[in-house]
């Protein structure tokens, strides 16, 4: 008898669980159906959300692209030793060999005045103007690549001052310095993007919350009647939370689409610019995992906004 | 089954709606609640339905004090009640079946059980075969019977009806009252707020009369 009773209680639990799952499935699809029944309102809300999301992700992708560009420069903490004008090629070559002996140096390359001029003529497109000059204005250069271990500034500075000791050397320039400056600028830019994205994220949360609040008002009778027949808050708010989820999910996808279309429009001119600079720069798009993350973030933000409104409003709505 | 003990209800801006009301309804008892408009009938029903809380005294439902019940427990307590309204309070964008099924869906019954009970309930009110219709396609009397089917589908211990015949003609009213008497037969307690004195006297059940918040006859 007791055993039988327990069995009954168990099957009621299973029944409750099944009904619970069914309820969720119903909420998931009925909320989608409800959105499609007011296409104009839904489209307006989703578009506003999608634009906010596409703005945030566009900022992100622009910074990611510039970082990719400066990232390539990072490894070139190359030093250029500009030699005095009166140093002959042979003396310059000799100094290069001397520097090669230094333990903290990986690669040394001597570029004579003549080579420098040829290179400059080839790359700059000023060959005619340069031909018009009476004498070669370019100095000889020794390019030094320090060991990778010398990543911190102090070591680099020490090497720099060592090189400055040579009487043949006019001045030393570290390419690192402007890279470091650019990277600091990029750091500020990416932080700015983060702040703007945060604001746009809040916008997504509030817009969804407000949409759900209006929806709740439109369906007040349903909420009252459900309350009167013994529905819990969790039961009542479920379809609304799913509505919020769909708003976030669909606008996340649409936001991604808008951003991708914008990138596709920009791709050709960027490639053109890239070839003009003799570089092979590929425009970066959102990766698949970033795309999934975007969908998740926009869905979660929308659900949080809906939940906050429901949590507050459902307690306010008392059946009359 | 339902016991009021020295219950008073005061609204902050409208003054005292109920003053020291005490009565007891037994299991399977049927009673009418009468009084002029503003006598406190609605307030009394709202206290039982846990839509309002009384200021003093206590309301006991099946031995449990529902005046001190936590907000979270209210939904579960309400599942013991069947509520019927003058304006039916049906969801007009859903079918008759879905309207009647709502209390069961809310309580988490499986599909077969919901379908079985909804049909049994609609059968009792004589609306079997109209499951797929929408409320607005039905007559007033039929809509009220949908409301009644919804109230009994969860096998409640207590049925509360607020002016259930207020919008119905005498024949339909008598029909609805006959249904309530049938519920009483199977052990359900029924409390009906009404000012249809003629009908009440004709049926001859217990009558609770309110006047300006006081229970003057029970």
Automatic annotation (TrEMBL), chain A:
Record keywords, A-Z: Cell cycle, Cell division, Cell inner membrane, Cell membrane, Membrane, Transmembrane, Transmembrane helix
GO biological-process terms attached to the record: cell division
Ranges where the ABC3 transporter permease C-terminal domain occurs: 195-310
rRNA-binding as UniProt keyword: no
Cellular compartments per GO CC: cell division site; plasma membrane
Annotated FtsX extracellular domain residues: 78-172
Spans traversing the lipid bilayer: 40-63, 185-209, 245-266, 286-310
Superkingdom, taxonomy of origin: Bacteria
Cellular localization per UniProt: Cell inner membrane
Major subcellular site: membrane
Lipid bilayer topology: Multi-pass membrane protein
Subunit structure: Forms a membrane-associated complex with FtsE.
PANTHER family, per the entry: CELL DIVISION PROTEIN FTSX (PTHR47755)
Role according to the record: Part of the ABC transporter FtsEX involved in cellular division.
Annotated family: Belongs to the ABC-4 integral membrane protein family. FtsX subfamily.
Protein name: Cell division protein FtsX
Species per Swiss-Prot/TrEMBL record: Methylomonas denitrificans
UniProtKB/TrEMBL annotation, chain B:
UniProt KW Cell cycle keyword: yes
Keyword ATP-binding: yes
Family matches, as Gene3D superfamilies: P-loop containing nucleotide triphosphate hydrolases (3.40.50.300)
Compartments reported by the entry: Cell inner membrane; Cell membrane
Residue span(s) of domain ABC transporter: 2-218
Listed GO biological process terms: cell division
Alphabetical keyword list: ATP-binding, Cell cycle, Cell division, Cell membrane, Membrane, Nucleotide-binding
Alphabetized InterPro entries for the sequence: AAA+_ATPase, ABC_transporter-like_ATP-bd, ABC_transporter-like_CS, ABC_transpr_LolD-like, Cell_div_FtsE, P-loop_NTPase
Molecular function in Gene Ontology: ATP binding; ATP hydrolysis activity; transmembrane transporter activity
Record-level GO cellular component terms: plasma membrane
Pfam families in the record: ABC_tran (PF00005)
Membrane topology qualifier: Peripheral membrane protein
Annotated SUPFAM superfamilies: P-loop containing nucleoside triphosphate hydrolases (SSF52540)
Family: Belongs to the ABC transporter superfamily.
Subunit-structure text: Homodimer. Forms a membrane-associated complex with FtsX.
General function of this protein: Part of the ABC transporter FtsEX involved in cellular division. Important for assembly or stability of the septal ring.
Name recorded for this polypeptide: Cell division ATP-binding protein FtsE
Organism: Methylomonas denitrificans
